[in-house]
Amino acid sequence: MILTIRGDDMSKPLRMYFLCVHNRCRSQMAEAFAKHFAGDQIIAGSAGVEEREIHPMTIKVMKEAGIDISDYRSKRIDMKAFISSHMIVKLCEQVNEKCPSVPFGIQSVQWDIPDPTPVNSGHGNIEDFRTARDLIKEKVIQLLKEQNVLHVLR
């Protein structure tokens, strides 16, 4: 049986939308973990207020975790996906300030995950990406448990 947070139709997958500013790291990781750990019980997407190319270290650290996101692409917030979601998960305070208001009836979750991407030019520190990845994985697993859509951990 597929469970959702909506009481009106428990047979439809839970729609989760993960947001951060640029959709180049944190929200991409969250989307990938949600899909990995919940399978077809959810429809997960991610987006940013702005779009930027996915950071190469994001792809690298997710591959270390056994998840290939090399074909993922950065996207801007799609209002149709936004308003059709059951849950909006904002991964940083900055997106909270720039994001459209979450409509009544859609669950809003706020995580403040530090951005591992370098502010200035440069490649960034791989350990910062791993730290963000591990924190996001932990939070996604906990969220999926709370929503009763967590598959057996792999």
From TrEMBL:
CDD domains reported for this sequence: LMWP_ArsC
Gene3D superfamilies: 3.40.50.2300
Domain of life: Bacteria
GO biological process assignments: response to arsenic-containing substance
InterPro entries: Ptyr_pPase, Ptyr_pPase_sf
Pfam families the record matches: LMWPc
Domain Phosphotyrosine protein phosphatase I, first and last residues per copy: 14-146
Record's keyword terms, sorted: Arsenical resistance
The protein's name in its UniProt record: Arsenate reductase ArsC
Species of origin: Paenibacillus cremeus
